[in-house]
Design goal:
CATH class: Alpha Beta
Pfam families: Lactamase_B
Structural class: alpha/beta
Strand content: 25-35%
Strand order of the largest sheet: 1-2-3-4-5-6
Number of domains: 1
Oligomer: single chain
Shape: globular
Helix content: 10-25%
Cofactor: Zn(2+)
InterPro entries: MBL_Glyoxalase_II, Metallo-B-lactamas, RibonucZ/Hydroxyglut_hydro
Keywords: Hydrolase, Metal-binding, Zinc
CATH architecture: 4-Layer Sandwich
Protein name: Metallo-beta-lactamase domain-containing protein
Radius of gyration: 16 Å
Number of helices: 7
Length: about 210
């Protein structure tokens, strides 16, 4: 299994495409620039199976409808943010200067807790990691050694908690209990900026490790 990081949109949020040798793929957090996502899929001759959302902020969902309509695939999201997709005030697009209001139809499948999910040939663990937003989740692909964390954890940083529903103590607890407990060589694929690893962040992340 392989993956590619595609920074998209005004905030350069990371969209990810996870794909296997047979040509199936998952689209994760298609935040904008649908053409960029489509071009990679076409180049690799991939067959999308689903869209997975780590959370429902506008910079991670802006190209959902373009991808859902083109490939006729379902969308997965945590149930706590099911109303955010269609509400620009909840998903933040109404408040962000320079962003058009983002309205997305409801998700086809809702996560409710920690669970093992299989979509086509892909199996992964859904880890609830709230704090940046109430319904933030991470997708752990254990066999391939990586976790896609949205805006929960960054390289030497962590997600914002000053947005609606954000809670700093909850975010730190999510990172320590759900992410830092993963195998230390696990690659961390964040919602913005560069890839890191669990051991790097567990050892050197001042924003998480310096908190009590």
């Amino acid at each position: 299994m392989d993956w590619i990081r595609l920074p998209v949109g005004l905030l350069q949020a990371n969209a990810y495409i996870v794909y296997d040798k047979q040509g199936s793929c998952l689209i994760i957090d298609p935040g904008d620039e649908a053409k960029k996502i489509h071009q990679f899929i076409r180049k690799k001759k991939l067959q999308p199976q689903a869209i997975l959302l780590t959370h429902a902020h506008f910079d991670h969902i802006g190209a959902v409808e373009a991808c859902r309509e083109k490939y006729r695939i379902p969308v997965y999201l945590h149930e706590q943010e099911k109303k955010w997709l269609s509400n620009p005030h909840k998903n933040g697009s109404a408040q962000y200067e320079g962003a058009a209001p983002v309205v997305v139809q409801q998700a086809d499948h809702l996560f409710s807790g920690e669970e093992r999910v299989t979509v086509g040939a892909f199996s992964f663990d859904v880890l609830p990691t709230p704090g940046h937003s109430p319904g933030s989740v991470s997708f752990f692909f254990q066999e391939s050694g990586f976790v896609i964390v949205g805006d929960t954890l960054f390289k030497k940083g962590m997600g914002r908690t000053d947005l609606p529903g954000g809670q700093e103590h909850q975010l730190i607890r999510s990172i320590r209990e759900k992410l830092y407990t993963l195998p230390e060589d696990t690659y961390v694929l964040p919602g913005h900026d560069d890839v890191t690893t669990i051991v790097q962040e567990r050892d050197d992340n001042p924003h998480v490790n310096g908190k009590t």
